[in-house]
Design a protein that fits this description.
single chain; alpha+beta; Translation Initiation Factor IF3
């Protein structure tokens, strides 16, 4: 599956549009990560636990979006975007969406 955040894929021609596809995941904070984040807030620095959490969430959202596009018959997704929303206290949704297409 080719994935692009632009309207097209260089060197490829879009021959069919299937529509919007999306994938999401809801993740909750981990108490151990919260403790480490609190310490980092005092001394500064990257919150590696949260960085890993977001990396995993983006990957899962992309996999789910790609699966939906494959089921439609697409071989690429263009105009990919990401968003987040708060679902409950301590939990957030990360979602990915784009346009499923066939390219040649």
């Amino acid at each position: 599956m080719l994935i692009s955040n632009t309207q097209d894929i260089p060197g490829k021609t879009i021959v069919e549009f299937y529509g919007v596809v999306s994938g999401s995941t809801v993740r909750a904070k981990h108490i151990g990560r919260d403790i480490m984040a609190s310490l980092k807030n005092v001394v500064g620095g990257e919150l590696k636990g949260y960085t890993e959490l977001l990396t995993e969430a983006r990957g899962e959202a992309i996999r789910r979006m790609s699966r939906q596009a494959e089921e439609m018959g697409a071989n690429a997704i263009v105009n990919v975007r990401f968003g987040t929303s708060s679902v409950a206290q301590g939990a957030a949704e990360l979602f990915a969406y784009g346009t499923a297409v066939t390219v040649e």
